[in-house]
Amino acid sequence: MSDKMLTVSSRRSRVLINSVLVVFSFFWIFPVIFALLGIMKSKKVYNLTNFWEFAPDIQLLENYRFIVEYSNILQGMINSLFYGAVGALIAVIFSMMAAYALAKLRIGHRMFWFMLIYSGTIFPFQLYLIPVFKAYQRVGLYDTRVGMMLFYSAICIPFAMFVLRNFFIGVSDEIMEAARIDGADNWKILWRILFPMAKPSISVVLLTQFAFSYNDLMFGITFTTSSGIKPIMATISTFQDHIPAMLLACIIVSIPSVLLYSFLNRNFDEGIAYTSK
Amino acid sequence: MKKIMWLVVLLSVFMAMAVYAGAASEVNTLEESAKKVVFWNDKLNDVVQAQAILKPWQESFGGTIENNPYADNAAYRTAVSQSIDSSSAPNLFTWWSGNQLESLATSDKLMVLDDVWEDIVDMGVSEDIKAALSYNGHAYAVPFSVLNTVLLYNTEAFKKAGIHEVPSTFDEFLVACEKLKSVGITPIGHRNNSWASFVWFQAIIAAYDPDLYLGICDGSVSYTDPRMFRAMEVWKAMIDKGYFAEPVLDTDNFRRFAQSGVGMILDGQHQVPKLNNDYGLTSGEGLDAFVLPSMTGAKDVLFFEVSPMVSPKAAQNPEETKDMIRAFYTEKTQAATLDARGILLISSIPVEDPTLSKINAMTSDSDSYLSVLRFYENTPAGLRDYVITEMSKFMSGVATVEGTLNACAKEAVKYFK
Amino acid sequence: MNKHTTFLLDISRKRDYLYLLPAVVLVVGFFVTSIGYTVVLSFFSWDGVSEKVFIGVQNYTDIFNDNNFWISVANTVYWVVFSLLLNLVLPLVLAILIVQSVNSPLFKNIFYFPATLSGTVGGLIMVAMLSTYGIPQLFGLVGFEKMVRDWLSVPVVNTFVMIFMQTWRGIGVNLLLFIAGLRHLDRAPIEAAQIEGASRGWLYMKVIFPALSSTTKVVLLMSLVNSFKVFDIIWIMTKGGPYRSSETLALSMYIESFVRNNYGVGASVAILLTCIILIAAYFNLRNTFKSE
């Protein structure tokens, strides 16, 4: 491994490097400690004690009961899982095709097409609210799961295309030429040869774009009104007055993201390497 | 083999999702025989409050009220403004009084609620409120809440400072501040948002002279009127003496208040239940209220705000909407809003909470108190935002009286021609 | 080449464009039309409910004459410069440390984790942590009583506090990119340099950093666009206050549209912001496209 090459030999600097990381890590996970201390407290105790003090009596179960009693957290999670998963999947498929075209096919004015697609992430997101709402109402997509799914797919495309194009650029033309000689057309090359190679990059895109859609509040509550269609963040936002319950809900809600992360984790190091070639 | 597995998994996931996506439209078309209305708001974001109020409201209404609270401002404004003319308009939604209500009402998008008002006045809602919600002689809104801004004080802190009587003149108020300070209690709490600067601005100006306040609001008096300078100097002196705490988060402000770190907060009555339930203060024992006394011995000014609810013309089932509105002012529903938010709009039920009861008594005691609409809805919105920003600067000590008033006067010219 | 083959070539070229079609349709359908709508809106005066009134370029001239706009511009510049710097340098340094550490997967996961949180949730936790009873209180306990105040209500200080918070949340993906980049370095030039007895500093400056330049370009473009658009964190933590001192252009656009109901003014700010980002992104990308 090339890691070894960069490894320092002296013991002193090894100790130094690890202690610096430990100190930084402490800051990075500090909010988790904060959240774990918080979820043990009742609302009143939380309001009146310093956060580092332990709760006099553990209220974790009561806070959980509160969440279950006052919200349908499961329905929200299912909805958001659906938006996040489908949005990211569709975005990956369409972006694969676009990225492939931009990197390897005969397209004129590549930069124009690239910028056109990439522009989706350049504009401030709030300006999409009114036009999309208007359009959705006109075509009957307002307050539907299909509408939400389409929107999240669209908004995930630019970043996905950006990352995948970077990957495809790095793939040598020889591999493709060899396939072409064997009689494969562009479509087959994309799905039979490039797709398996790109699996790591795709993992990255899936993870980040799933997280975006799953965590989104603004678009979710703007384009829906029925409780059966609302995303999970709408539920969380109703706990803002009860911070311990909110913190607990956050922990519960982040389970799918963490699972997905650990599931895709194996692919990562490999994956991101290609994106930056 | 592995590839086929992948494909199967992907396909089944897709199919499950397609079925799920289709299910959505089914839910929407479910026939419901009972009455059903939709209520959009940016107020009932707290689940506990929402359920406490909705349950009795639905029972009084005899149907379902679908509560749709928006936790995001942009989402709420977009949804309301874009659906107000369409069939997906809600039956009832909360809005802001003043200019924002006016532009909805005058663009002919709202149902006129004159007949409902007759009923709810019979139920005990004060007719005075109607005026604030009427344009061209018609009422376009009903109140979701009417609340007063008062000085809430921590009685323990006052005792500790040797203040045994609530200040009845402005000088006594200043003495009380000094006493609090001398025992190490910061007299007045200060939130880290624009709230503090605007409630204190209106309170100081109105305590100096209620007419001056009204003149400022409608543009008949300039911000650079000599009286304004004198009033602002009083405020400046208070700031310089350290009567105001450093600005902190809302929750920190309440906590410091509950723990006698600050003696008073100028805030809405809807904070009383919260201070009782979540911060361990008890109304009538640890917590009480008074109004900032007048500087001249005129009537003390009690500021109120009205949050309106309106119904779009385009909404379905107007009769059901009207039933729903009436149901809001039944004793049952009002008892719940009183309990959850400290707000009562009818006179027929008693207020148990001693502090709220005191505030309630003030509102009907027109001999001693003058009820005035707060600054926020009483002056053009653009000017208001400008003035509040300037006052925030002033309160944080980076602006002078002269600079602040001159800047406001310059801006006011644009609105009052 | 005869006519027949050029014709075939033509068809297959056109077919190549079909690969772009779905992505372009969705992006144009949702976002390019939205920006078109916003451009039109920026020439109108509109409060969201009444009729729109055409007022030409008045929104733009009003903005340029508004002092607060220039404060927003200055704050946006702070954000772009400092958050770009932090989002580039910190992940790079951490990545270099992590690949040499005892347990690199553990450290990688720790530093990546905040990126999985939603902006709202992360913001709320941070607001609670930064309350005067939170971290500032800890400073008070160890003797820095002057630090026990609401940092978010001190102008300029609050912007830097927020930039740090953004860094906390934002470096995850960049860190993964740099770690992967370091792991896949070409070993030959490094070994050669080591044999020649190069110092560590020289090794990094002359060999490793240049080899990472393609990763750096990706990180740079993503962080650049993000730093212009930062919104969530500021909106949750200060709402642009106190007295509009921490507003950035993204905040101004939001406040004008959705708080003050001046949708026309908000649209104009949005268009100006978009132009700035487009220009920045264009110059950033032009070289990349040329070198390919």
Task: Describe the protein's architecture and organization.
The complex is a heterotrimer of chains A (277), B (417) and C (292). Chain A has 277 residues and is mostly helical. Chain A has 14 helices and no strands. Chain A is 77% helix and 0% strand. Chain B folds into two domains: 33-146 and 306-351, 3-Layer(aba) Sandwich (D-Maltodextrin-Binding Protein, domain 2), CATH 3.40.190.10; 148-304 and 366-415, Periplasmic binding protein-like II (D-Maltodextrin-Binding Protein, domain 2, 3-Layer(aba) Sandwich), CATH 3.40.190.10. Chain B is built from 19 helices and eleven strands. In chain B, strands 1, 2, 3, 6, 7, 8, 9, 10 and 11 form a nine-stranded mixed beta sheet that branches. In chain B, strands 4-5 form a two-stranded antiparallel sheet. Helices cover 74% and strands 1% of the residues of chain C. The mean pLDDT of chain C is 85. Chain C starts with a helix and ends with a helix. In chain C, helix 4 packs antiparallel against helix 11 (213-229). The interface between A and C is large, with 103 and 99 residues.
Shape of chain C: flat
Named at the architecture level, the CATH assignment of the largest domain in chain A is Orthogonal Bundle
Q: Cα-atom Rg of chain C, whole angstroms?
A: 24 Å
Number of helices of chain A: 14
